[in-house]
């Protein structure tokens, strides 16, 4: 049976972007079991420890309900370089616990810290974040990401980023790349475009 996961940032005891996580979980479960009753995600976060640290909550679930919850202090990865890799068959439309394809691509990063995945001739995501590119005036995010992350949705809703089709050849026209996800805010992790290695 498919298992899925919501990774939720908790700061000051408050879940961040919880409605977007709730909506994604509801949509995922409804896709695989259309008549399934919704789960209250908030209920499963009540055991979160009181802490001034950024807490990573991980809720594993399937169509029958929540299977596991865990909480731990978040430790940000040190990402300084990205390696372009290509996979035209990868599918991570649903945030699954099965990361086999992503983990395989990560082994192709050579001397870089992380991969930047190309599918169908277009930039998508890294193995664990959405991305956006700065052209000197605005931040553009790939229109066809592997996963429509909750932070990506929030940034689009608040007009902080715009969607665009971005090819590997067009990367050089940008100045910076930003990596973000539910745990990493916009502008917390930015790199110069020169830090992206081509195929």
TrEMBL record:
Keywords: Lyase
Keyword Transferase: no
Source organism, top-level taxon: Bacteria
Listed InterPro entries: Aminotrans_IV, Aminotransferase-like, BCAT-like_C, BCAT-like_N
Molecular function via GO: lyase activity
Protein name listed in UniProt: 4-amino-4-deoxychorismate lyase
């Amino acid at each position: 049976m498919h298992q899925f996961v919501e990774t939720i940032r908790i700061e000051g005891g408050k879940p961040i972007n919880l409605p977007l996580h709730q909506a994604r979980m509801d949509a995922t479960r409804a896709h695989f079991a259309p008549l399934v009753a919704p789960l209250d995600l908030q209920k499963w976060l009540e055991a979160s420890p009181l802490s001034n640290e950024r807490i990573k909550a991980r809720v594993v679930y399937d169509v029958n309900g929540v299977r596991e919850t865990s909480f731990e202090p978040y430790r940000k990865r040190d990402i300084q370089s990205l390696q372009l890799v290509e996979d035209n068959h990868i599918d991570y439309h649903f945030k699954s616990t099965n990361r086999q394809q992503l983990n395989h691509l990560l082994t192709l990063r050579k001397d870089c810290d992380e991969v930047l995945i190309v599918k169908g001739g277009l930039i998508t995501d890294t193995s664990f974040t959405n991305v956006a590119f700065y052209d000197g005036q605005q931040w553009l995010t790939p229109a066809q990401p592997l996963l429509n992350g909750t932070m990506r949705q929030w940034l689009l809703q608040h007009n902080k980023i715009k969607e665009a089709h971005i090819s590997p050849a067009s990367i050089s026209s940008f100045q910076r790349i930003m990596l973000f996800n539910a745990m990493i805010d916009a502008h917390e992790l930015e790199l110069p475009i020169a830090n992206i290695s081509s195929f």
